[in-house]
Amino acid sequence: MSESPPARFYDDLADDYHLIYADWDASMRRQGDALDALLGQDRAALLDCACGIGTQAIGLALHGHRVTGTDLSPRAVARAVREAAHREVTLRAAVADMRRLPFPDAEFDAVVCADNALPHLLTEQDVLAALTEMRRVLRPAGRLLVSTRPYDDVLRDRPASTPPQVHRGADGDGRTVTFQLWHWHEDGEHYDLEHFQLLPADGAWRVEVRRSTYWALGRDRLTSLVADAGFTDPEWRMPQETGFFQPLLMADAGK
Q: For residue 180, what is the DSSP state?
């Protein structure tokens, strides 16, 4: 499992992932606040099926939700557990593929798949398999929350890069610069991403480059796949409505 390209990408990034944020703890709290408001219940049994190093999972646990996190990356999962303990919240976590979740049917009140994780799956078959698993582990009337990049805009413009982001150390020093280069496939939907981090090193810069591939999955197409997986009442909510940094698709598990 850890030999898949996304797992290698996030294994390699796990120690430095927080450096993509100007202030990781502030972002964790902000994302947790936004997702909590959309859940509509207290102390939910919640699965974050692409938890990474815990940004959304810890943010939700800080609200009192009973959070389980899974991810393809063993290093990311291990760090998420450590970071949760450091903040005195409980995070149950496991290494798992979202297409084959290791939980019984109807285990959770809500499933979160945030931060553009689903588009690591590159075919409709794989996305549908993951969404079907998310519905399987949801209780009746459980809620799904999926966030992606604003791919309708991305597909219109097909950018070649992202703007640089700067993380500044707690003392104002030790700045880290992060940006991405995107190389579009001939189909116009998939792209190879090169993730650059420039880290200070003895008065110079050390450059780390990680590579992965994504599917620019537009809103209508993802909505259709969510319906095909058996979810009901899909609804897109934009960042200006939710305070979350990406568009969010909400849907219900149904009866």
A: E
